[in-house]
Amino acid sequence: MSLDPYGENTQPEYKRSTRVKVRCGNCGRLLAERVTAPWTIKCSRCKCVNESAPLIPAPQELSEKAALKVATARNEQTSGS
Which residues partner with 20 through β-bridges? Predict the structure, then answer.
């Protein structure tokens, strides 16, 4: 028997992006207060299917310059949402 049945003291297997206040891309209806990728939500108003962007793994060998570009783009994306 586990001493931590709810997994409160465990580390996550993967770091996943979480978005706050997700709205429908078609009509603007609020779909979720907080959601963690990957997600798919169908809007109850306009029936549009909204999905999280797929995470594309980076190639193993990135130059320092390329890694800096990727990190900068990700920071801009998360701060803009």
Answer: 34
Locus of tokens 């320092």: 64
Domain housing 31: 15-53
How far apart (Å, rounded) are the C-alpha atoms in residues 2 and 10?
12
pTM over cut 0.70: no
Q: Which helix (H) or strand (E) holds 65?
A: helix 64-80
* pLDDT confidence tier of residue 2, bands split at 50, 70 and 90: low
24: number of Cβ within 10 Å: 19
Structure tokens at 14: 């993967």
Token pair 């207060």: residue: 33
Number of structural domains the chain divides into: 1
In a domain, 38, yes or no: yes
Q: How far apart are CA 64 and CA 70, in angstroms?
A: 10
